[in-house]
Write a structure and sequence with these properties.
The protein contains 6 helices and no strands. The chain is mainly α and about 190 residues long. Helix 3 (about 65-100) packs antiparallel against helix 5 and helix 5 (about 125-155) packs antiparallel against helix 6 (about 155-180). The two termini are about 25 Å apart.
Length: about 190
């Protein structure tokens, strides 16, 4: 999932950067206007009124708000996906330590296992484990949000199709999250519920 999000980011983050050609064009237009003003003032003999523009007026192009939103959603999605992967790696290490075989007596192994089990519970490891799919779901929803915002700026027909698909998935997701709390025999129960 992170690779997919990264591919979208690579293509779209460039919009946040100023285009060097546009900046060069703005600078040349500004210089031309200044030279014309200087020439006119010199012809009039009024060179004391020359005012040089500040650097802020040379380039004022900002990316569109939609590009900023899309990049915020997609970079956040990537962060959540990578957090999930990183946390998954840590949890795997913790669980390996928990099941590590120590070659001692059966009694010592039992005591050590019991100690490790209580430590996992005390340090809320099961709750941390349940956060892994939640982080991925947040990442997926952020990606969808960025996709919808991007398509809103590009094409209405494609946007409507994608919103319908994402909305359908949202209904399924919400239904499978809510139904288990209403029907005890529902097999859709998730660890977070």
């Amino acid at each position: 999932f992170s690779a997919i999000v990264t591919a979208f980011i690579i293509e779209f983050y460039k919009i946040l950067q100023q285009d060097p050609e546009v900046t060069s064009d703005q600078i040349l237009v500004t210089i031309s206007a200044q030279l014309a003003d200087i020439a006119m003032l010199l012809r009039q003999g009024n060179s004391q009124n020359l005012v040089m523009p500040s650097a802020a007026t040379l380039s004022n192009s900002k990316p569109p708000a939609s590009a900023i939103w899309v990049n915020c959603f997609w970079f956040s999605s990537l962060v959540f996906a990578l957090l999930s992967a990183s946390l998954g790696t840590l949890v795997k290490q913790w669980l390996r330590r928990y099941i590590a075989k120590d070659y001692s007596s059966a009694r010592e192994r039992t005591r050590l296992r019991e100690h490790r089990y209580h430590s996992l519970i005390r340090w809320m490891t099961p709750h941390i484990i349940t956060m892994l799919p939640v982080l991925l779901r947040v990442a997926l929803n952020l990606f969808f949000a960025g996709l919808v915002v991007l398509l809103h700026t590009l094409n209405d027909a494609v946007e409507i199709v994608v919103i319908a698909l994402v909305g359908s998935w949202g209904v399924v997701y919400i239904a499978t999250s809510v139904i288990p709390s209403l029907a005890l025999d529902c097999p859709y129960a998730s660890p977070e519920a």
